[in-house]
């Protein structure tokens, strides 16, 4: 019970200090909105809007989660409050889950901002919402743990943002968000399958447009594997740099 109380207290502290601040709330709305308007206006037809919706949702999650973790974890490390948390009577696994749950929720909410605006423009009936939500949640978890890995691997906020872009921008172009993987140059296609967002985007495409090209169980399994690997590596980095 004390562990759960500690988890809840850390989560609520982060929500109050970071995620529920007006600038972050507005940024969480403006970023997906800007992508939505840019691509929806450019597409010019309801069919195109439905086709690009999975990509906009995936990008909103990716940028929202990685950006927030880069700021929160790196800032707390600079202020030494992160080291104080490590001394708390709570297991390291539960502590880092508490630190990342807020970003996961932030990413999930970001994903449905484009859906809200799309609902005013097109008919969203026929979407497999259970699969879509499961895909959104797994993308948010994987992206958050990627952000955690980045945040505990650098020392400054600007380094975290730069390191984040090292992963984010290739994902924008190689993961089939707006250009099918099959349409990429043959040399680049193998790289697509090394990036987790390829599998997350395919889940969303299957649930929204039914035009995914990978088996859904495979995509879910790969995302779970990426999540576990990133979380495990992050914990090792923390133990190596601050505990041992």
Give an overview of the whole structure.
- The structure is a single chain.
- By secondary structure, this protein is mainly alpha-helical.
- It has one domain (2-243).
- The chain has ten helices and no strands.
- Helix 2 (22-43) packs across helix 5, helix 3 (46-78) runs parallel beside helix 6 and helix 3 packs antiparallel against helix 9.
- The chain is globular, with a radius of gyration of 18 Å.
- The chain starts with a helix and ends with a helix.
- The mean pLDDT is 84.
Q: What share of residues is helical? A: over 70%
Strand content: under 5%
What is the average per-residue confidence, as pLDDT, rounded to a whole number?
84
Rg of Cα set: 18 Å
SSE string: HHHHHHHHHH
The span between the termini is 27 Å
> Can you tell me the number of structural domains?
1
Major sheet summary line: none
Q: Note poorly predicted spans.
A: none
Number of helices: 10
Number of strands: 0
Q: What structural class is derived from the secondary structure elements? A: mainly alpha
Backbone shape? globular
Task: Give me the secondary-structure topology.
Layout: H1 2-19, H2 22-43, H3 46-78, H4 81-86, H5 92-119, H6 129-151, H7 157-174, H8 189-192, H9 196-208, H10 216-243
